Each structure stands twice: as structure tokens, then as C-alpha cells.
């Protein structure tokens, strides 16, 4: 009788432990690719990684320049994500000390500025401080994002303060 009670209690503890464990889609995902770039994706945006990787590849294919960039904030509409109920997501791209940093999130509040929402998300990310931004690097980042979007039926809109 004691053995049956112990087995039932063990099963109950296992089930309770599994139910209280956070689901993968509810946590941010951080991806680092061999010193080339770092990505922080808000929950459910792991589907955007292919677009981000193509931007990084396009950026690296351009002639190298030195210096950091300002943070480029974009609203991205990807038709392939609509089936997952993601109409638009916000993407921040910046270059720090030769490494690309991406932060992606879904818009949270309808009435709040998307730029402000993304800026708060970026500030919470663990990113090194910028040196003086280089306008040429800013143009390279924007060109890489636009070129990648145009080639994959994705529309992007630059967000400004």
C-alpha cells in the first residue's frame, strides 16, 4: 500500500513540475553566431531568424568599414509569418565593435509608439555601449535590410523618434 502511495505522489510531483515549467515560446531567445552577430528575439519570433541571418550575410558581403552605427529601428511585415498570427514585428539593428546586434519583438501596446516600445526593449538588452556612430555604417545597415527585404517579399518601414 505504501508503495502505491509513493508511486502516485511521484507521478503527481512530475506532473506538477511539468505544468509549472515555462514554455519555450514564452521566453526570449538569444542566439550568438561565432562573433559575427547576436540576436535577441522576444517570444514567438524565432520564425524571424532566417530574415535576420540574411541581413547579416548581406551586410558582411559589403565592403568593411570601421566604427559603430546608430540603432536602426524597423517595422517588418513578413507575409510568411501571417499564418502564425504575426502581422508585424519590430526589429532593431546596430553595429558595436564590429559585431551586429539584432533585437526583435512584437508590438505590445496599440496606442504606444512602436519606436518607443522597441527602444525600451533594446535598452534592456545586454549590449556594449556605442562609440561615435558612423553615418556610413548606418547607410550600410539600412541598405542590407532593404536589399534583403526586397529579395524576399518583405516590407520594412524605418521607425523614427
Keywords for this entry:
161 residues, alpha+beta, 6-stranded mixed beta sheet, 6 strands, 22% strand, elongated
Give an overview in words.
The chain has 161 residues and is α+β, with helices and mostly antiparallel strands. The protein has one domain (25-158). 37% of the residues lie in helices and 22% in strands. It contains 4 helices and 6 strands, in the order H-E-E-H-E-E-E-H-H-E. It has helices at residues 2-20, 49-61, 114-124, 135-150, and strands spanning 29-33, 37-41, 72-77, 89-96, 99-105, 155-158. The protein has a 6-stranded mixed β-sheet with strand order 1-2-5-4-3-6, with helices on both faces. Strand 1 and strand 2 (37-41) form a beta hairpin.
Strand percentage lies at 15-25%
Distance linking N and C termini: 69 Å
**Helical content class:** 25-40%
- Count of spatially separate domains: 1
Envelope shape: elongated
Number of strands: 6
Task: Provide the succession of SSEs.
Answer: HEEHEEEHHE
* Oligomer category: single chain
Which spans have pLDDT < 50 for at least 5 consecutive residues? 21-26
Strand order of the largest sheet: 1-2-5-4-3-6
Short structural description:
This protein is of the alpha+beta class.
Amino acid at each position: 500500500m505504501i508503495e502505491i502511495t509513493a508511486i502516485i505522489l511521484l507521478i503527481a510531483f512530475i506532473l506538477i513540475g511539468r505544468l509549472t515549467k515555462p514554455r519555450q515560446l514564452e521566453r526570449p531567445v538569444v542566439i550568438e553566431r561565432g562573433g559575427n552577430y547576436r540576436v535577441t528575439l522576444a517570444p514567438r519570433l524565432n520564425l524571424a531568424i532566417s530574415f535576420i541571418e540574411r541581413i547579416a550575410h548581406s551586410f558582411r558581403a559589403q565592403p568593411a568599414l570601421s566604427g559603430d552605427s546608430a540603432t536602426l529601428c524597423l517595422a517588418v511585415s513578413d507575409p510568411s509569418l501571417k499564418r502564425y498570427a504575426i502581422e508585424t514585428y519590430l526589429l532593431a539593428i546596430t553595429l558595436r565593435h564590429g559585431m551586429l546586434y539584432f533585437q526583435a519583438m512584437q508590438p505590445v501596446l496599440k496606442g504606444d509608439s512602436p519606436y518607443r516600445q522597441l527602444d525600451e526593449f533594446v535598452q534592456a538588452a545586454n549590449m556594449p555601449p556605442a562609440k561615435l556612430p558612423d553615418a556610413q555604417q548606418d547607410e550600410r545597415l539600412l541598405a542590407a535590410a532593404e536589399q534583403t527585404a526586397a529579395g524576399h517579399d518583405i516590407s520594412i518601414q524605418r521607425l523614427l523618434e
